[in-house]
């Protein structure tokens, strides 16, 4: 894994150098040309210029924990930035059937685009496909549909990458201990995103000869995290490293750790809440890192929906169309870089 990363980094540096050099050439060639030409659909000016009003229907799960609340508020805030966006927001729900009816209403209302964070990707695939067939572009957020025909564009956090980042960090901290006990408090096991996180964690640990010896699943809630962590701590009298998939349920995990009087291990969180970052910043507990899972995904979806309907594109790309798939990064936040990430973290 280290060799592959070194190679990838070398390619990135080489590419960056080439682009920088190319930028100098382009600047030199265009310095004497007329700069008054009309902006293109993927120029900064064309991208940001006000166009015809775009009616966007937005539906997501109930905001029953901090990350989902942040998803919703970020989407609303992004829409308010654009005078040419008319955002229609359906009530958040964890009932797939109710969410299906919401999307059907958007179709009947002939909205221009739909941004959909499905409570269950597979269950919402059929109605999203019907929207696409009706000529309404769908932007799929966070939880993927089971068919590529159900969305024009998909915006995802990197769930597998979260696991890789967490596992790599654990390897850096305890990988020199061949008998290190690694534990995991997962999210909802039935969700593909949880499965991807666990698989990435497992794969990264293999690079330093470790594996997960104790694992429990919770439900992304404080109560679920506390109950699952209490069960795990009872079953594992000694732990060297613990990864908890979600910082909201991590509040409960930390409560269980405090109640058990355990402090012999390091803990890594997930999602990147402000609470977790402040805990890392304090340096007073077991939590040493968290892995970012961006709460801006729906906000990105709102912006992309506007670009799609107005036949625009992303100004930082050469391409003249919005990409089919956008996967966001999963960086590790530690005491060394927490001040960089804390200002944009979500409150839970």
Brief rundown of the structure:
Belongs to the bacterial solute-binding protein 2 family. It is built from 12 helices and 12 strands. With 348 residues, the chain is α/β, with parallel strands linked by helices.
The helix fraction, in percent, is 40-55%
**Element-by-element helix/strand order:** HHEHEHEHEEHEHEHEHEHEHEEH
Number of strands: 12
What spatial order of strands do you see in the largest sheet? Answer: 2-1-3-4-5-11
Helix count, DSSP H or I runs of 4 or more residues? 12
Poorly predicted tracts of residues: 1-36
From the spread of the alpha carbons, the general shape counts as: elongated
Global mean pLDDT:
89
Beta-strand proportion? 15-25%
CATH 4th-level superfamily of the largest domain: Response regulator
């Amino acid at each position: 894994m280290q060799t592959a990363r070194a190679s990838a980094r070398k390619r990135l540096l080489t590419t960056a150098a080439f682009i920088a050099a190319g930028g100098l050439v382009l600047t030199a060639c265009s310095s004497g040309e007329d700069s008054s030409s009309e902006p293109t659909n993927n120029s900064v000016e064309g991208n940001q210029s006000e166009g015809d009003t775009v009616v966007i229907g937005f539906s997501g799960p109930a905001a029953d924990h901090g990350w989902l609340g942040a998803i919703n508020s970020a989407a609303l805030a992004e829409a308010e930035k654009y005078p040419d966006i008319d955002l229609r927001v359906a009530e958040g729900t964890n009932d797939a059937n109710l969410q299906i009816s919401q999307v059907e209403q958007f179709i009947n209302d002939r909205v221009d685009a739909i941004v959909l964070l499905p409570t269950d990707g597979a269950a919402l695939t059929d109605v999203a496909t019907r929207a696409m067939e009706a000529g309404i572009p769908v932007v799929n957020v966070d939880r993927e549909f089971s068919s590529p025909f159900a969305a024009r564009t998909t915006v995802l956090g990197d769930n597998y990458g979260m696991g890789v980042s967490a596992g790599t960090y654990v390897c850096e901290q305890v990988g020199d201990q061949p008998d290190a006990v690694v534990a995991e408090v997962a999210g909802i096991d039935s969700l593909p995103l949880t499965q991807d996180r666990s698989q990435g964690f497992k794969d990264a640990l293999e690079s330093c000869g470790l594996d997960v010896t104790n694992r429990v699943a919770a439900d992304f809630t404080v109560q679920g995290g506390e109950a699952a962590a209490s069960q795990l701590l009872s079953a594992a009298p000694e732990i060297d490293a613990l990864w908890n998939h979600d910082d909201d349920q991590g509040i409960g995990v930390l409560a269980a750790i405090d109640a058990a009087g355990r402090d012999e291990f390091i803990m890594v969180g997930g999602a990147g809440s402000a609470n977790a970052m402040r805990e890392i910043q304090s340096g007073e507990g077991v939590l040493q890192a968290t892995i970012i899972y961006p709460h801006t995904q729906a906000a990105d979806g709102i912006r992309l929906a506007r670009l799609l309907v107005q036949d625009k594109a992303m100004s930082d790309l050469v391409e003249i169309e919005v990409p089919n798939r956008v996967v966001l990064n999963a960086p590790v936040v530690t005491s060394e870089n927490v001040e960089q990430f804390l200002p944009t973290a979500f409150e839970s």
